[in-house]
Specification:
single chain, 5 helices, 9 strands, about 20% strand, disordered C terminus
């Protein structure tokens, strides 16, 4: 198992999904989608302790600037490296690593991440201000062309790269199921600098 410093240094390289046509990748949402992520945390670049964040917006702000301005404990009010960690990386919940430097979601849009039932992957989609659900980059391009009121928003402001599910935190009953014949094992790659997590 990689230690925390190695996890900090290794970033997952992914690219947005672009294999769907705009027509098939943008649909009206029948109801508000539920994200699988219930807690957001960042790891200090100096002490490697995990700090939980109050909001997804705060998490996205730190994530979007990870390379140019790495997160350190004193960026949070009243927190220093000597402060005990807010949470420990363990298998009490399922952890997923988000790619660093993903752009902050444009105002009015929502980035939703849903964990598949077999824990093999996280699916990323965006919900537009009018409720359109977009599952791939071509859909965003088409949507922005059809809505000139968002001329200040660029397709590059969106990223469909899935966070990486950490295999050592997947529940045992899921691991057993995935290792059975004819069932594909979870696709897990090197973690990125920041993590999101979901209670099991």
């Amino acid at each position: 198992m990689e230690n925390e410093k190695e996890k900090e240094q290794e970033a997952a390289n992914g690219s947005p999904a672009v294999n769907k046509t705009p027509k098939s990748s943008a649909k009206k949402s029948r109801g508000p989608p539920q994200s699988s992520v219930d807690t957001f945390a960042v790891q200090c670049n100096d002490c490697f302790k995990w700090r939980t964040l109050a909001t997804e917006d705060q998490f996205e702000e730190f994530r979007s600037k990870q390379s140019e301005d790495p997160f350190v404990c004193n960026k949070l009010e009243g927190i220093v490296c000597d402060t005990p960690a807010d949470i420990e990386y363990d298998s009490s919940r399922t952890w997923v690593m988000d790619k660093p430097n993903i752009p902050k979601t444009p105002k009015g849009f929502q980035r939703v991440i849903v964990l598949r039932r077999d824990y093999s992957k996280m699916d990323v989609q965006y919900i537009t201000p009018d409720g359109t659900r977009v599952r791939a980059a071509p859909g965003i391009i088409a949507y922005l062309k059809e809505h000139p009121e968002y001329s200040n928003v660029s397709p590059t402001d969106f990223c469909f790269t899935s966070p990486k599910v950490m295999s050592d935190t997947i529940p045992e009953h899921i691991e057993k199921k995935s290792s059975s014949p004819n069932v594909k094992s979870p696709n897990v790659k090197s973690p990125s600098v920041k993590k999101q997590k979901k209670s099991t």
